[in-house]
């Protein structure tokens, strides 16, 4: 059985995956409206609502009723500048967005996590992602989809030297460890949004590549 989301809430629309997903949503004839708060203005579109400013400040101001929410928020330790700043975005802000989405009527939340996410991980990045996943589960969503992509591939505005060096090699890795393009991930997210599977599910990167073909 499939549901067709009509009114969409999107966080992280200026990121690598978020911009691909936004483009897809705005070109879907079944999508009536996309509300995408962002720090910098997005290109205008008749079906796009784009309040501009820090997300944590915009969240209480958001209004309306929405069917589905996508959370494409994500940073790196280098970008954030500290472990505390990284957690503030990849854990705290994700949970704030999720709570506000639920208040706005959203019943299906799709969130980008990470390969290897686990609250028991000895790796700080993976541990924070795992703790975020656990906290979202505790919110008791009617439908929660957690996706765990491997290394995201695509052209970013900011330069990430390590990713630039490792990206070609990631194509050679097996199964869920192989890199996935942001465009493929965006297509997979949209397909998953159309599926009416109650409860929580976790989708690993190899399945995301298959869904996004």
UniProtKB/TrEMBL annotation:
<dbReference type="InterPro" id="IPR014843">
    <property type="entry name" value="Him1/Fmp52"/>
</dbReference>
<protein>
    <submittedName>
        <fullName>Nucleoside-diphosphate-sugar epimerase</fullName>
    </submittedName>
</protein>
<dbReference type="Pfam" id="PF08732">
    <property type="entry name" value="HIM1"/>
</dbReference>
<dbReference type="InterPro" id="IPR036291">
    <property type="entry name" value="NAD(P)-bd_dom_sf"/>
</dbReference>
């Amino acid at each position: 059985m499939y549901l067709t989301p009509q009114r969409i809430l999107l966080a992280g629309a200026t990121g690598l995956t978020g911009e691909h997903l936004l483009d897809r949503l705005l070109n879907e004839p079944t999508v009536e409206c996309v509300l995408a708060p962002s720090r910098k203005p997005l290109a205008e579109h008749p079906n796009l609502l784009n309040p501009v400013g820090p997300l944590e400040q915009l969240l209480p101001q958001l209004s309306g009723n929405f069917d589905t929410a996508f959370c494409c928020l994500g940073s790196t330790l280098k970008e954030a500048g500290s472990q505390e700043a990284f957690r503030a975005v990849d854990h705290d802000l994700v949970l704030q967005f999720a709570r506000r989405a639920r208040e706005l009527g959203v019943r299906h939340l799709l969130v980008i996590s990470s390969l290897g996410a686990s609250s028991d991980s000895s790796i700080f990045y993976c541990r924070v992602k795992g703790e975020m996943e656990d906290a979202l589960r505790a919110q008791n969503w009617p439908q929660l989809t957690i996706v765990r992509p491997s290394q995201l591939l695509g052209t970013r505005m900011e330069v990430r030297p390590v990713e630039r060096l490792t990206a070609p090699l990631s194509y050679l890795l097996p199964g869920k460890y192989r890199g996935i393009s942001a465009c493929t991930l965006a297509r997979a997210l949209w397909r998953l949004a159309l599926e009416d599977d109650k409860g929580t599910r976790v989708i690993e990167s190899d399945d995301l590549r298959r869904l996004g073909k």
